[in-house]
Amino acid sequence: MKVALTIAGSDSGGGAGIQADLHTFAAHGLHGTCAITAVTAQNSVAVTRYVALDPEMVVAQIDAVADDMAVAAAKTGMLANAAIVDAVAAAVARRRLPFLVVDPVMVAKSGDRLLDPAAEAAYERLFPLATVLTPNLPEASALLGRPVDTRDDMRRAARDLRARGPRAVVVKGGHLQEGDAVDVFCDGERLVELPAPRIDTANTHGTGCTYSAAIAARLALGHELLDAVRGAKEYLTEAIRRSYRVGHGPGPVDHLHPLTTNWRSP
């Protein structure tokens, strides 16, 4: 069985972070492993508190997994602060982890910050190591220091971020105000728009984590880069379609929908 590694924060509400990533890896038939960067106290409504782990402990988890298992792909999510970003970048480079998907998590779905603002610039250190960088519109805006609000903005952002070192960039268009949910993929040779019908639901907690984990999973399974992104988007779209509510705020997507289609109660 292929092994995938997520380097991210824990979501006590179970909808995002390592919980979403491990569910997504399982849905793709992978053995999921993790290096926890932060512990959050959160639910579907808010992040009430989080504690970042010591960077040395984050690296110790990465090393423990890589010492024993052949990691076929990895992804990053919440990295919390610049010290953790630096430590993760050094560990990934030293371990030569293949197929790294970098999701520059900065703000939770609830609007609560998950990254020290001073750490935003530190993400540049991960760019040369990234197979795919997957910012949403606010994250692309923060990384570039300019608004990214339209499809034209997304195309320019994908090119400009790709020029900073990642092998490919996917600028996610879920925050577009109208029309389809369009993402823009750029690998330096191809600039491709990936549309999907917008699903009328508020239950979108953890979509970014799920998308990046699905890309990593498909790269681990040997999919070509653009095919991995396309397939991950199709998986996520169906997960959103089958999303559900478990609390008073936005619920999670159904990460396990390929496995649980026939398990629902009548």
Task: Describe this protein with a few key phrases.
266 residues, alpha/beta, 35% helix, 19% strand
Summarize the structure.
This protein is of the alpha/beta class and 266 residues long. Helices cover 35% and strands 19% of the residues.
Report on the structure:
35% of the residues lie in helices and 19% in strands. Strand 2 and strand 3 form a beta hairpin. A 9-stranded mixed sheet has the order 3-2-1-4-5-6-7-8-9, with helices on both faces. The radius of gyration is 17 Å and the shape is globular. It is α/β, with parallel strands linked by helices and 266 residues long.
Order of helices and strands: EHEEHEHEEHHEEEHHH
- Order of strands across the main sheet: 3-2-1-4-5-6-7-8-9
Termini separation comes to: 33 Å
The proportion of residues forming helix, as a percent range, comes to 25-40%
What is the strand and helix layout of this fold?
Blueprint: E1 3-11, H1 17-27, E2 31-42, E3 47-52, H2 55-68, E4 71-76, H3 82-95, E5 100-102, E6 132-133, H4 137-144, H5 151-162, E7 168-171, E8 183-186, E9 191-194, H6 207-220, H7 225-241, H8 257-260
Parallel strand pairs: 1-2, 1-4, 4-5, 5-6, 6-7
Antiparallel strand pairs: 2-3, 7-8, 8-9
Helix pairs in contact: 1-6, 2-3, 4-5, 6-7
